[in-house]
Amino acid sequence: KDSYSVTLLPGDGIGPEITSATVGALNALTSHTSWSINFKESLIGGAALDATDNKDAFPDSSLEECRKADSILLACIGGYKWDNNPREARPETGLLKMRSEMGLFANLRPAKVLPQLIGASTLKPEVITGVDIMVVRELTGDVYFGTPKGIDVVDGERVGYNNMIYKESEIRRIARVAGEVAMKRGGKICSVEKSNVLDVSQLWKEVTIDVMEKEFPKIDLSHMYVDNAAMQLIRYPKQFDTIVTGNIFGDILSDEASMLVGSLGMLPSASIGSSGPGVFEPCHGSAPDIAGEDKANPLAMILSAAMMLRYDLGRGEEADVLERAVEMCLDEGWRTGDIKQEGDGCTLVGCKEMGKKVEAAI
Amino acid sequence: KDSYSVTLLPGDGIGPEITSATVGALNALTSHTSWSINFKESLIGGAALDATDNKDAFPDSSLEECRKADSILLACIGGYKWDNNPREARPETGLLKMRSEMGLFANLRPAKVLPQLIGASTLKPEVITGVDIMVVRELTGDVYFGTPKGIDVVDGERVGYNNMIYKESEIRRIARVAGEVAMKRGGKICSVEKSNVLDVSQLWKEVTIDVMEKEFPKIDLSHMYVDNAAMQLIRYPKQFDTIVTGNIFGDILSDEASMLVGSLGMLPSASIGSSGPGVFEPCHGSAPDIAGEDKANPLAMILSAAMMLRYDLGRGEEADVLERAVEMCLDEGWRTGDIKQEGDGCTLVGCKEMGKKVEAAI
Ligand SMILES: CC(C)[C@H](C(=O)O)[C@@H](O)C(=O)O
Ligand SMILES: CC(C)[C@H](C(=O)O)[C@@H](O)C(=O)O
């Protein structure tokens, strides 16, 4: 293929700024390649709510655009403006609809500590040096989408409930993704659940063991309860290579793991399905407090674009180039506010300038 | 009252050792008071399974003993021996039965950083100095006890599920406990849930707001999503005073918070109901790897006994004495293996000796 179509979902807050820095970096990259990328923008989140009279945070028109594309780059969503909307009219609801409608059942969230930013973490340097964890989070099941759910009145009082539920086939396919990911890494998987209490976790554990035994006999599989995992991530993070877990535990643990790295501003993620385009997005939120002020860190989105090149467009070499360009910028001492530390001798730059530095490094 | 009855549940692993150190400390304390404590042992966990032919990890005889007592001191449960039992015959199942049968709906887990042990944490000293968090975890509801639950076969494949469910009255009573606790502390509560996704969390949030507005108007109430809370506990733990949350989120976050303190070996907890005796226990597990070797740290259980004196026996002054005795031992430089650090100039002691040091300090 010599031309790819990529749908851009700039979303809200700092989204448009980091999207344009990312597009700049990708254009700089493809000016050296025989292939090119065509970008097309679509709406999601608050931007989509504004455009649809608060009806849909991921309109069908956006869904169609996404389905047609070779891949999707999402910036971030949400903001004060929509915070008090009912759940149906919240930016997050668009994100959940996108994941579900596009079948993006696997969320890959690397937490790799960069030597240049080792001081940015609240953990001691000796604890986090060399940490390189990949969290493989299931993304379209669990208590997020389980039914029955709702708020009913029973015996004169309200009762709220959501079903924490997994089918064998759902566990099987995420375990396979984890197996494939781990085979390309350290070959070690820690499956995180709460099987000492929950039936759904019991099934999770059994199916995970079955998949690994039959399909990935070389994988070193271990099991950990989610409460212990939350502890071990802080106590001794180097013990982890690949973590596989359900949607809600993965939501919590991947955010926790991101703190090892110091700043969310550096963390990319990939959401992929069994076929069709994936969605690549930074782990951070839309930071409405600094939106429009050219203070945002575009590097997590640029690193997400690298994941897109590698996973969706099959352009691993160019992904490497992009990742190395980001590292070069850090080595050269360029820092946005979120990763700047007192007395680090580095130079504070804005979002635009950081984008230009990456382009130059390419 | 001049005599209290306390049921001891030594449980498994290091349980018996730390129980006898704790009883020693309590006896030393009551040798100076006009009132006394009568201890009676009962079975729970693996010890109970062994005695009942793997039938019941909390037999009705233990339940009766506990109900009759003024308070209950639990050490810890579990061990390799029972790890592969089916869930009905696991030590943890006894714990869950105890909580539920005795109506212990509120679990208080303080995470207070002690200046003497500041170096034991993997977090930087400046991040944790002064941290003093109380996690108020709901303990008898949520996905832990929700029905329907099970593993069924649907359309030819297994499906595992548990219901994440809260009634308004359950949320109301735990919010009240949090309100009372917070009024005696910094007056600040952070309610942790996932109301951007879950109906049950939406209800949690609404009811919590209602309780605070009507019954605790002076409380400074804030709300945080559980993924963000997992992050903020590491990023800037000093922002928290009292955290109130559901059973599973509390399970995860209280274990995470305990890592701020450095060692689980120092952390007490209290589980209380609306009437009847409470259960006081250390947060750590049964450490089967060092069981019987006189290496365990009895201080978390001794601090749990202090919580018992304060909450169940109404002996706050004596609770203070016990807590100060523990601090004195640390100041004097006595350390069990789990809190000993290289080059700290402290003296390594065993479980028994640490108990004696506390007795002496009293
Ligand atoms: C915004 C929210 C619905 C979402 C989630 O919980 O999945 C976010 O926290 C994430 O991790 O992508
Ligand atoms: C042993 C287990 C069932 C228990 C729980 O999950 O509640 C434990 O982790 C705790 O926090 O007391």
From TrEMBL, chains A, B:
It is an enzyme of class 1 (oxidoreductase). Pathway: Amino-acid biosynthesis; L-leucine biosynthesis; L-leucine from 3-methyl-2-oxobutanoate: step 3/4. One of its GO terms (biological process) is L-leucine biosynthetic process. It comes from the Eukaryota. PROSITE patterns: IDH_IMDH (PS00470). Its EC number is 1.1.1.85. GO terms for molecular function: 3-isopropylmalate dehydrogenase activity; magnesium ion binding; NAD binding. Its cofactor is Mn(2+); Mg(2+). Coiled coil: none annotated. It is found in: Cytoplasm. Keywords: Amino-acid biosynthesis, Branched-chain amino acid biosynthesis, Cytoplasm, Leucine biosynthesis, Magnesium, Metal-binding, NAD, Oxidoreductase, Signal. HAMAP family: LeuB_type1 (MF_01033). Belongs to the isocitrate and isopropylmalate dehydrogenases family. LeuB type 1 subfamily. Homodimer. This is 3-isopropylmalate dehydrogenase. It comes from Triparma retinervis.
